[in-house]
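User: I've been trying to design a sequence by hand for this structure and keep getting stuck. Would you show me what you'd pick, starting by listing the structure so we're on the same page?

Assistant: Good idea, let's start from the same input. This is the structure you sent:
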């Protein structure tokens, strides 16, 4: 079975000194005075100036920007990190996710680094949190776009998540959107 991101991250932390010459804490001390504050800035700097490979630089950049804490070890952290700039959307998210989990038994809510996945046999819905809206991504294939569903602008999920609905209030999660969720679930979880 393939390793998870959490397993790769833990392996990197355990072997950092051996493979890079510095421990995790030593690397965090190297990054701090650089002044870089964006993931790609740190990643590119670590690769060019410190000759780290992409995966090493990526783990270091993300751990540094997560206040020195692991990113992938705790799913609660992955979920909570998404609310840092979107706290106003928490109750709406809770209502939407409860609706999905109730409507489609056996579905798992899986927090990812940049989005939240709803997966049964396959991912059939995804959420990106924004400060004033929730983007609910769906796998609707060739379904035409209209006033309710538009082309997906979600970051993170597979390209199969082709459409999205923008929600700002739980009252918008009506029968039409429930029908789209059902259609996405059925498309993604064919026997």
């Amino acid at each position: 079975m393939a390793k998870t991101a959490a397993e790769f991250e833990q392996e990197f932390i355990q072997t950092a000194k051996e493979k890079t010459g510095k421990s995790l804490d030593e690397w965090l001390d190297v990054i701090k005075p650089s002044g870089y504050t964006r993931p790609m800035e740190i990643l590119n700097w670590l690769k060019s100036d410190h000759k780290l490979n992409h995966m090493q630089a990526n783990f270091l950049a993300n751990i540094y920007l997560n206040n020195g804490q692991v990113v992938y070890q705790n799913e609660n952290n992955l979920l909570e990190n998404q609310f840092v700039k979107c706290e106003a959307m928490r109750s709406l998210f809770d209502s939407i996710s409860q609706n999905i989990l109730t409507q489609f038994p056996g579905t798992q809510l899986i927090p990812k680094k940049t989005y939240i996945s709803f997966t049964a046999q396959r991912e059939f819905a995804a959420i990106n949190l924004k400060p004033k809206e929730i983007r609910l991504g769906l796998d609707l294939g060739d379904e035409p776009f209209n006033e309710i569903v538009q082309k997906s602008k979600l970051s993170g999920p597979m390209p199969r998540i082709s459409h999205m609905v923008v929600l700002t209030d739980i009252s918008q999660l009506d029968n039409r959107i429930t029908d789209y969720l059902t259609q996405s679930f059925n498309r993604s979880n064919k026997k």
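That's my pick for every position. To get oriented when you compare it with your attempt: Residues 78-188 form one domain. The CA atoms of residues 7 and 174 lie 40 Å apart.
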